[in-house]
Amino acid sequence: MSLRGLGVDPRCRCIETESQRIGKLIESVELFPPSPHCKDTEIIATLKVSRKEICLDPTAPWVKKVIEKIIANKTPAA
Amino acid sequence: MSLRGLGVDPRCRCIETESQRIGKLIESVELFPPSPHCKDTEIIATLKVSRKEICLDPTAPWVKKVIEKIIANKTPAA
Predict the structure, then answer these.
(1) Taking CB atoms and an 8 Å cutoff, what residues of chain B touch A31?
(2) Which end of chain B is more exposed for a tag (fewer CB within 10 A), N or C?
(3) What pTM was estimated for this model as a whole?
(4) B71 touches chain A (CB under 8 A)
């Protein structure tokens, strides 16, 4: 069955991830858990001003810190 | 200055949050850190199949667990 008709992209979204700490530039972060379409969690940040979307590495400590800060009701500064 | 021209909603997005544990139904989760437009972190989940968007309570332990599971490369089951 093709999933394209359902509006679901049947592949991973991220090809490469940002290695620099760009916490300050982040407007929002979207988390995609593992799914039949992609075996690994994907994290996509939308940047302030440019609204550019950047893939982040879920295993990078700074990325985890950014998400922990957001959940703790703080702005990410990392 | 009005921010509407920039495509930024100058208010909070969430009016109420989901109290039930809907981890299993979650397709993706978007995190919005505190900003000039909303003093509190907002978490919006997109549900599988229906693609409905639901606000989650960032202070709810089950919500934190769902996010921790996603970062740990697991599917949220809470």
Answers:
(1) 28-31, 67, 70-71
(2) N
(3) 0.86
(4) yes
